[in-house]
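new request in #modeling-help
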Amino acid sequence: MAKRGYHHGNLRQALIDAALDLIEDKGPTGFTLSEAAKQAGVTPAAVYRHFEGRDDLIAEAARQGFEMFADLMQYAYDTGQPSALAAFEATGRAYLAFARKHPGHYIAMFESGISVNRTPELALAAARAREVLERAATDLSKHIPPEKRPPASMVSAHIWAMSHGVVELYARATPGTRSPFPPDALLETGIGIYLRGLGLIAPDI
Amino acid sequence: MAKRGYHHGNLRQALIDAALDLIEDKGPTGFTLSEAAKQAGVTPAAVYRHFEGRDDLIAEAARQGFEMFADLMQYAYDTGQPSALAAFEATGRAYLAFARKHPGHYIAMFESGISVNRTPELALAAARAREVLERAATDLSKHIPPEKRPPASMVSAHIWAMSHGVVELYARATPGTRSPFPPDALLETGIGIYLRGLGLIAPDI
DNA sequence: TGTACATCAGTGAACGCGCGTTCACTGATGTAC
DNA sequence: TGTACATCAGTGAACGCGCGTTCACTGATGTAC
């Protein structure tokens, strides 16, 4: 890897990773700059060599999250080709997979309270993720007769909303609450019924 | 109203209202016990005459939210009768209406990080809300042939997830971001397509 | 290869702040006679 | 109706804490000659 730097080696990324760990198991509120520094084995003041402050650190964690998120969905979309339906469903599954595999990132992206427009880089990464889903929806829409075809951006908004809802309400390991269904199954069936509603899956199956 | 009490009159509710105001326009993080006390015109220590502490205050705000939420959805369900479909759709609309009209409550309920099992009263109120939606889903399910009828609790989970997703992603007034569609329309069309997928709405409309 | 110097990542102490919480208190309200 | 007492909602001062942030510093690393 990159050669070991001055003192720490790669403090910048170590701080981001520490922040993600903290966010993951203490919620967006539980994260503090000081504790992230401590977990990285460094004085709080050292953080300021790499970030403008607390919010900047979270924003960077979120940005990296959006990049991965977009990459994963893009990969799922590409892999699902050439069937528009398969590609779309794979993209939806990738959404949930990302949320489960990278809860720290997901929380930083959607629950930390930082605005997606905080920096141009963050906005760009978020836009890229949105575009992948929208492209998948556009491909899919072509199989619907134009006169009863909803805008592709609306379809993608519906799917995004349902996916986010499943993550927030059923995929989070809230102690004491258990989900009535596995989140994967819930999202899969939900999207399935929705797609049938669009006339893209045979109504009898 | 209740007669003006010892000193303040109705400090308990005033504190809850202040907390809701703060949560509404500063997010769940922005709320502090001290500031809620200040807004109610009272010393922070006074709060402890009515609540065990900060979390207890939030929990009570959330509980009141769930009660209202359940009442509103119940009312919508009743009003929508005798058509199961109309009742169901009205219930869904009531969900969004509640979230928009009482953002403080909604945030306290779903984003403040307090567990729904924190107190029996809170758990009960939350369960009641869930049951209303599930009853509406059960009624609706009866119009689906049994062999391709998903469990009613799954249908209600789908709708809850999509509703929550729309609220979180599109109904929140994040400055700088604007939603591509009005949240009402988004949820309405989303639920419509979903119901068509269940075979409950004529496919040609 | 060795020396002198420049760079700059991380230190450690300090800051002011607002937080949640505690405590002994006070004084307005309610109640018993 | 008036008086003595009990209750208890809210006060004000104090606490310890961890936070984010600043600053002058130090000493390891890199570079020029």
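bot summary: Residues 1-5 of chain B have pLDDT under 50 and may be disordered.
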